[in-house]
Amino acid sequence: DQQVKQNSPSLSVQEGRISILNCDYTNSMFDYFLWYKKYPAEGPTFLISISSIKDKNEDGRFTVFLNKSAKHLSLHIVPSQPGDSAVYFCAASTGTASKLTFGTGTRLQVTL
Amino acid sequence: ETGVTQTPRHLVMGMTNKKSLKCEQHLGHNAMYWYKQSAKKPLELMFVYNFKEQTENNSVPSRFSPECPNSSHLFLHLHTLQPEDSALYLCASSQEPYNSPLHFGNGTRLTVT
User: Fold this and answer.
1) pLDDT (0 to 100) of residue A100
2) How many contacts (CB atoms, under 8 Å) link A and B?
């Protein structure tokens, strides 16, 4: 049973527009959420995180929103750039990195 | 060298071979991990080492044998693997017990023939 779900396997967005990647989770004990970005032939790199005591965290062009009642997480990228084209993984944990549960990823393609 | 380094980047092995994957972290972290990434599946946690002690073994078959000689190095010894073990094997490190993000290496692409 997948506790972290990314229901869109792929997303295509025009350069300059907003990219919205979504993630749903089922375990209400999750209290720390992260987004990772992965380019081909490289390992995932940490992008942004949010703790369950917040509902929004911003870092430059990247904003993560957390809706605890809906058990839903989203990553907004504004404006999208071609270099943002990658696979994005959502992950959640119950307190430590050793308990991270990952989603299956969403492949974002930013077109010119 | 900085970050998390994995060698080799690619490995092809037969089902009767024995090989090892190596991981080294230069971040001063105290926890190291092995993850498996198969096509269209989430990253699966295999093993966790905290201060060189194994704290997690996610029901991984015994044909995978981890070794953590110190907090900077992690190995995954492989023997009598199956073709379905072909995957990307990722090493990661973090500073525990804080909620710090995992830092991943670039992985070893393993093909079992």
Assistant:
1) 87
2) 60
